[in-house]
Amino acid sequence: MIERVFLSIVSLVMFLLTPFVSIYAFVFKRITKKDFYNFDMTKNRSKVMNHIIRRWWGISDTAQKNRTFALFVMPTLFAFSLFVMFTFAHGIYLSMTNWTGLNTGKEIFTGLENYKEIFGDYRFAYSLFRTASYALISIFVINIVAFFLAMMVTQNLKLKNLYRAGFFLPNLIGGLVLGYIWQFVFNKAIVSLGGVFATSILITGNTALMGLVIVVTWQYAGYIMMIYIAALQNVPQDLIEASKIDGANAWQRLKTVTMPLVAQAFTVAMFLTLVTSFKQFDTIVSLTQGGPGTLLPEWLGQMFGLGTFTPVVNANELIAMNIYREAFTNYQLGVGQAKAVIFFGFLVAISLLQVYYNKRKEVEL
User: To the nearest 10°, the Cα dihedral for 345, 349, 355, 356?
Assistant: First the structure.
């Protein structure tokens, strides 16, 4: 076991060194007119050297394929490491400093002080709670609507391709533009009807959250619909016909035949809607600017020792907007970065749990 782990580490090192070795091999061949990789395999070498020659520096098919793979992957891996991994690691470091944006390059390392401050911030906790609430509602609503639309446009309809394009079209509209459009719809068009519609749903916190769900569902359901359409079109019609002959009604066919065969599509669609819901930002900015204001729930205030004091918080300030305001409105970029790190960890954990749960349900179905 230890030997395997060690040889795997050797292979990783060789993978990273392959581009440089290939350049050296090219120059070596030009100067000496000999092939650098043409090693004598009859020589008695150590296990490590034999492993390197057999898997990386030799003339065998395995070595040549490994070198080719490394050379093709390395440019992308280098760019990913430079612009993603390095940036992420640097962001973790900045989350442990007093970075304000004005002291860039002169930050002072403060350790976990920013994280301690966050865990005492009731506004961040409320944003996390509202984000989770919004995510649960939007995931359910978007997937139900998208699956219903997919079922509808996969029937024998004359204009089904036109319907598909129409349902998908809102996804092409940017979130900022979409928010301003629906702000006008909620505050002007619907209010003008009077009666029960005389008051805009964006005025109070709970109804404003439902307004956001309506807007995002209208935008995103058409995109998720395309995933379900692809899955439904792969359902064998022979099974549907056989279930009809056996006397199964529409609900029974959907539950026992269609749903199990499109279970993988549910896993993908729920993952996409989960990530999109937690990252919601631009539509909120243009629709409600994070408002309206509301009182902090008593149970949350008691958790933070506020007693009878109930401060005003923004009802629709989801976690992405809370991070933005902390960093770029309050100029506390170190604290904002720490919030972003916590948000990343939370989202990764929720996503893994969701995928694990859905994969188990796929087997059960």
Answer: 150
